[in-house]
Design goal:
Elements (H helix, E strand, L loop, with lengths): L16 H50 L9 E6 L3 H6 L4 E9 L8 E9 L11 E8 L8
């Protein structure tokens, strides 16, 4: 029994058009998902950088206030101040507020003034972002005993 090789169909090799189309659809879906992930990662990086710059600005302002003498720090309500150029370049809607208040607790300690610096801003959609705030206490120097 011999088979006639000329009458049998040769085995198909390669991909069909349906398989190629399905692979193309999967590739396009993966690329679209990858583009969305890249966009979200970039957005998160910008938000993190904005937060770091705001924190650095608040820390710098708090440090300059702490360097003042006790008498130079006047008790004030929260007052708005202009944010630094570095912050405004990255966060155009940034505002900074400073408040100095007299801390009355604990009673057995010398008086202290609480200094609070807060930087707040809105994101690109106009929604308020959780502000960055720092606080410190400046204690009144004890009178030196003259002997």
């Amino acid at each position: 029994m011999r088979t006639n090789h000329s009458q049998t169909k040769p085995a198909r090799r390669g991909f069909t058009l349906v398989e190629l189309a399905a692979a193309g659809v999967v590739l396009v879906a993966c690329l679209a998902l990858f583009a969305q992930i890249l966009f979200l990662v970039g957005k998160q990086e910008r938000a993190a950088e904005a937060r770091q710059v705001a924190l650095r600005t608040a820390a710098n302002r708090l440090e300059t206030l702490l360097a003042k003498n006790w008498d130079e720090l006047t008790v004030t309500e929260p007052t708005a101040e202009a944010a630094s150029a570095e912050v405004l370049a990255l966060i155009p809607s940034a505002t900074m507020s400073v408040q100095v208040s007299l801390a009355t607790e604990p009673v057995d300690q010398p008086p202290a003034k609480q200094i609070r610096v807060e930087v707040s801003w809105t994101d690109s959609a106009g929604a308020f972002v959780q502000p960055v705030g720092l606080s410190a206490w400046k204690h009144q120097p004890r009178p030196e005993a003259n002997e």
